[in-house]
Amino acid sequence: xxxxxxxxxxxxxxxxxxxxxxxxxxxxxxxxxxxxxxxxxxxxxxxxxxxxxxxxxxxxxxxxxxxxxxxxxxxxxxxxxxxxxxxxxxxxxxxxxxxxxxxxxxxxxxxxxxxxxxxxxxxxxxxxxxxxxxxxxxxxxxxxxxxxxxxxxxxxxxxxxxxxxxxxxxxxxxxxxxxxxxxxxxxxxxxxxxxxxxxxxxxxxxxxxxxxxxxxxxxxxxxxxxxxxxxxxxxxxxxxxxxxxxxxxxxxxxxxxxxxxxxxxxxxxxxxxxxxxxxxxxxxxxxxxxxxxxxxxxxxxxxxxxxxxxxxxxxxxxxxxxxxxxxxxxxxxxxxxxxxxxxxxxxxxxxxxxxxxxxxxxxxxxxxxxxxxxxxxxxxxxxxxxxxxxxxxxxxxxxxxxxxxxxxxxxxxxxxxxxxxxxxxxxxxxxxxxxxxxxxxxxx
Length: 444
Ligand code: GLU
What we know:
Layout lengths: L1 H13 L4 H20 L8 H5 L4 E10 L5 E12 L5 E7 L5 H18 L4 E7 L8 H15 L8 E4 L6 H15 L20 H18 L9 E5 L3 H12 L3 E2 L1 E4 L2 E4 L6 H10 L4 H7 L4 E3 L11 E4 L8 H9 L4 E3 L8 H9 L3 E3 L1 H4 L2 H15 L5 H25 L6 H20 L3
Parallel strand pairs: 3-4, 3-5, 6-7, 6-11, 11-12, 12-13
Antiparallel strand pairs: 1-2, 2-4, 8-9, 9-10
The structure holds glutamic acid.
Glutamic acid binds next to strand 3 and helix 14.
């Protein structure tokens, strides 16, 4: 569609050298044509041009002092992409690969993901090229305090609500919250999510992204009268998302057999032991090789990757572009029938094309991993009413939201004559909610 090509050309021109951002925008725009044709109003008021331009981008210096007394300098980011549906909402990523391109791609994805949750949250993302690996707790604390010393003026429970992502978990959120509270003299619980359970956090938030990804896979399988019970599941990653994807898969009777990190991957034919995984990764902050060393029957590999393992279900839960066309071919050859993305944009465009051509069940991250941010919204709800829900209540709400997202994707795909196309369903369902609100608000 010419209108979409024009917008994409402009994005390429105005955002040079940002390949992941281009990829994320292209993946969405490519699927919007039927919606824009059906509703000509979406061509008015430069709606698409405004959608691809962040409302605000903040980049700042983060100086901190390491344990040797040496001054280190990192760069901090917060991209406040779209607030049509609510306060900006999205995680902070601390990883050496972080740059403006990565944060913009994540922020763009977050707009549609958050719209799909139906929880009244806009889209944003932030982070830093700070690498928490190998840093002491004190170094992480000093970094977080310096990061928040700039960020605090841009956020608030009605403005922008950060949370965790890669490299930012409970420890980091604690230090960030402490500094926010100190600087503002406000115990503003709803300014961050993923908080500790003793001071405003929500039960199930830790588990939510991984749980949700598995629940989404299960909903997809039900449309074909298939069951997760007894399925062999291949999972990449070993952080928060992967860990709780393993746990939920096991609870539902499936057998998750792999985990990975940047040093290699583990094949554990009897099924991953979640308790050991949590001990190694969360408590000891170790590597997956430490897991393999302690688990009988588990094998650690440095060559190849988890996608070569035969499976029924694949859950990419590590990072962007971790599953390429060759991996997709191998998965399909080995009989994989379901792919549900726990990470953000883990499959390359070539891989997605192969999954779609072969008509297996494939769910993009903005639908399948929305359980994390949805439960963040539940945390905000509890904070606003000073309530504390039980685990069962929070998990029930999460389950309902995941089902609603699944059904919205399915119904939208059907409405536009492409049944079973979860990519089109997720993009158009999310887009129309945001676009309608933007049109209501006028040109801003
Ligand atoms: N970083 C997560 C995501 O990619 C969660 C964001 C949040 O809870 O705000 O959706």
